Amino acid sequence: xxxxxxxxxxxxxxxxxxxxxxxxxxxxxxxxxxxxxxxxxxxxxxxxxxxxxxxxxxxxxxxxxxxxxxxxxxxxxxxxxxxxxxxxxxxxxxxxxxxxxxxxxxxxxxxxxxxxxxxxxxxxxxxxxxxxxxxxxxxxxxxxxxxxxxxxxxxxxxxxxxxxxxxxxxxxxxxxxxxxxxxxxxxxxxxxxxxxxxxxxxxxxxxxxxxxxxxxxxxxxxxxxxxxxxxxxxxxxxxxxxxxxxxxxxxxxxxxxxxxxxxxxxxxxxxxxxxxxxxxxxxxxxxxxxxxxxxxxxxxxxxxxxxxxxxxxxxxxxxxxxxxxxxxxxxxxxxxxxxxxxxxxxxxxxxxxxxxxxxxxxxxxxxxxxxxxxxxxxxxxxxxxxxxxxxxxxxxxxxxxxxxxxxxxxxxxxxxxxxxxxxxxxxxxxxxxxxxxxxxxxxxxxxxxxxxxxxxxxxxxxxxxxxxxxxxxxxxxxxxxxxxxxxxxxxxxxxxxxxxxxxxxxxxxxxxxxxxxxxxxxxxxxxxxxxxxxxxxxxxxxxxxxxxxxxxxxxxxxxxxxxxxxxxxxxxxxxxxxxxxxxxxxxxxxxxxxxxxxxxxxxxxxxxxxxxxxxxxxxxxxxxxxxxxxxxxxxxxx
Amino acid sequence: xxxxxxxxxxxxxxxxxxxxxxxxxxxxxxxxxxxxxxxxxxxxxxxxxxxxxxxxxxxxxxxxxxxxxxxxxxxxxxxxxxxxxxxxxxxxxxxxxxxxxxxxxxxxxxxxxxxxxxxxxxxxxxxxxxxxxxxxxxxxxxxxxxxxxxxxxxxxxxxxxxxxxxxxxxxxxxxxxxxxxxxxxxxxxxxxxxxxxxxxxxxxxxxxxxxxxxxxxxxxxxxxxxxxxxxxxxxxxxxxxxxxxxxxxxxxxxxxxxxxxxxxxxxxxxxxxxxxxxxxxxxxxxxxxxxxxxxxxxxxxxxxxxxxxxxxxxxxxxxxxxxxxxxxxxxxxxxxxxxxxxxxxxxxxxxxxxxxxxxxxxxxxxxxxxxxxxxxxxxxxxxxxxxxxxxxxxxxxxxxxxxxxxxxxxxxxxxxxxxxxxxxxxxxxxxxxxxxxxxxxxxxxxxxxxxxxxxxxxxxxxxxxxxxxxxxxxxxxxxxxxxxxxxxxxxxxxxxxxxxxxxxxxxxxxxxxxxxxxxxxxxxxxxxxxxxxxxxxxxxxxxxxxxxxxxxxxxxxxxxxxxxxxxxxxxxxxxxxxxxxxxxxxxxxxx
Lengths: 638, 591
Description:
The complex is a heterodimer. By secondary structure, chain A is of the alpha/beta class. Chain A contains 17 helices and 34 strands. Chain A has 4 domains: 317 residues, Ribonuclease Z/Hydroxyacylglutathione hydrolase-like (Metallo-beta-lactamase, Chain A), CATH 3.60.15.10; 173 residues, Rossmann fold; 42 residues, no CATH class; 81 residues, TATA-Binding Protein (2-Layer Sandwich), CATH 3.30.310. Chain A is elongated, with a radius of gyration of 35 Å. By secondary structure, chain B is an alpha/beta fold. Chain B starts with 5 loop residues before the first strand and ends with a helix. Chains A and B meet through α9, β26, α15, β27 and β29 of A and α5, α9, β23, α15 and β24 of B. Chain B: This is Integrator complex subunit 11. Chain B: Its cofactor is Zn(2+). Chain B: Belongs to the metallo-beta-lactamase superfamily. RNA-metabolizing metallo-beta-lactamase-like family. INTS11 subfamily. Chain B: Its main location: cytoplasm.
């Protein structure tokens, strides 16, 4: 088994797993960090719209803002080079969560990929909503004439904020058409549903991070491997991860460990709710630039509770949720109870919806719009709480809202994303509006893994990206992988193919031909608690179809025999067939040689009668073999 | 060689419809499939005979799990009785929608029995609650490990919301129980679907419509709409007895769109409360409906009707035409019976029975064309028009055959049907697929002999060894010698090497080697070893000759005979002998 780590960001894994029979791509990577080099898209803003080009660069689309250089055009993304990946040789892709699904079309469309894609049902449902949102946001961008001249090394490296990955490898987002054909390739799975690809069995196991998010258990001919990514045991609306399936697995590939180990989500959310309360009490607006699926489902109900229960906050303070897919996101959240936490599941038995969103909408507490235009502008009322995409503050409606509320320090922007942190806020730094960074990180941290989960799973070999082999922060040895005792650790460097040695004897399921089956009988002494059946048959492995079949022709396979041979018995048996044999001793150890002149053959019996050698020409050998075996006992016979 | 014997005994639904309850044992594992009640009986016969199962001992000790296929009472109606009154504390598996809906129907059933019929010795609301606490919800296709040996898997059955088929597996033996299923998609549910890897030892299939090849669905629907339309245009009232969930939604969607299309404004009513409640379940479990509804549900919920409204009090006494969807479906009580009694004597009215009715129910008697029926102690003349149009979502003969073709079981068993109908289909199945078909009566045990198991696990080491022994590149007949060892206690089978088996048995394998003298004119040992390296790149050249395949084939010098080679090989290398022999001859006979 070979594993190649293709991701430069351990939070967003992408790796190639290769077995002789099958090649599996573990997740797809789309790195959005290039976004941060682009100017935020807003509908109106004299501040952002009126920026002059940077003079000395002489490119009309390169602008300077707050001391940093930005490209004024549709942002690009960075993915693993699909040509070096040889997508045409990939048999299947496992998509663990909706973040990975967003990347999928880059890897499946126009890459030569012809295989299968597996993802759970909700990953497909919610991931589709996320992708549609992206596609819509990109459609809204004005067609700015941006070329690649700025990417030249002599230009972009001169930026005050130079890109840290080569912008020549960046590319545009895909089209709606590519999205559709890509998503159509997906075979939706349930958790714990086993599927087989070229004799390799693959099972998605609950990972607990988001609705439908999965870890994978992959069992090939000769080895098994568990693949953990974005897993969580924090309570939220999703059911927490299930690690039982991985216990005592041979190999474990571990990725996506929390980047905020010192900020447990319970504390972060607490701080977030306090800030929200204070801001609303001041009469300010609160903006949450965030994804329209996921944590938002919990936050909506938590914030509605604050509004209900806090003195000094008007009870009719609206919560706006603005996204082209807001309505769908809320609708889907309520029809996937099977995938939610026990507590939410219990609600459907009452029968109530797992989330209170519909009630909030009915009571006009939660107001859902697909964009800032049209109906929304007519009923927009402040102060309010608003959830809107995108966390990058480059596309979508969030950036526009910051600009709109920018002049008043009563207002607050609360960043919650773990991928886009305060870095994304640089273009807005000097504005009056307050900003808070409360990344809600629910993924497993090193402490949980080192002290608990890895000890329980106890893989023989643990595979981790290089960065986990060193402390995440200086002098913090607790923030790295510490796995000793029960197995070894293999470091997976970017782009390096590691060979994972087999650690246990593996078995293969082999078919038994019905004819053979009919003749098989178990023998064994009645007193013994074991029965034996000796097989002397043929094995066909033609066309990778392993089957035991009856011997193709007589004696094409002889059984094994036990017992000792007495030379006198052989001589007399030969005599019965009218062959004269002469027997003689050749050494002191009792080796006897039987010479049969008529057949020009010699039988040598040694090892106290346990070894026989027959020397004869081709035509006479079968005769003598039969004769020898006739005085022996087939293995397993009573 | 698969030594887990399968035995199956129907406690209900054996050559009968109603009270589905089938006991399956695979090896030492015992599973109860469904726990239904019989609507045709009012005495203890409505429950399966649970004492049959474990005699006097506790059910929990005997049963490893209970599985409920769907929410219809003839499949789950005895569950609280079994778990709370007889006593069972083990796991009860069912799908999520089933788990949500079952308690509602049980509560309805309990009310009908205790409030309408005045029964006192019946399970209570508390019983239902504690029973449902034992229910574990499962998702489709998920493999549930009940314990180390027993696992189950659910598949979409398309009969009602949440209906599932279940595969029960122990080792290599498996049983696929269909529950009730429908092989054709309809307006709100998809068609039954099992995964392609499902190959049960025994398929237990319902056979409600074993002899029916139903006419095209479209024609049936047109017929239905025409009859309803004609009746209401003539001023008559139409009652359609249905169960709250299932066909009701299907027919409502059908009638709703017809009313819309034809611009009709004759009232359509649905039993109070049920419509809303039913819709709620459909809203929560939209993923269990068909693709079409799933795709459009965000924009428009198919179950929010415009023309169909909850029944108003006393609506049945209103003059003029109306259509009423009324529960329950077999006229065995509740509102259906109440309204039927009021309407049945007017020839201008009509009753449409859209589904199967269990023998003994009023519904069944109406379908049979009885003109005078005693209901709740009073005789009624039945003059209204009676139409029986099967809309129940059961597989017909074609559908059953299709499922058998698809999953290729080694045995088929029919339940949930009438004996003559089963008999007919049995003939067909045995003829077309050549598999034995069983149709046990209630209480009759079917033993299925441990059928040969098709697979055995072999270590890669033994396989590689075997492949090495075959000199051909097609590897179609590699010599394979080994021992299958059976542990009589655990019934576990293991394939071990002959050497290991011999050691285990405390015997010694007799080594047989063969030898032949090859005569030539001149022997160049370097040329020989080079030629042999093609076959064994790791061969060893020694003083006395060449050792190949770790000594399993040797080419040795013959003392005093410079132009001869003695070829010695282990018996297992017999197939290599002619090949090597020919090459050696070729080389030593040159010059």
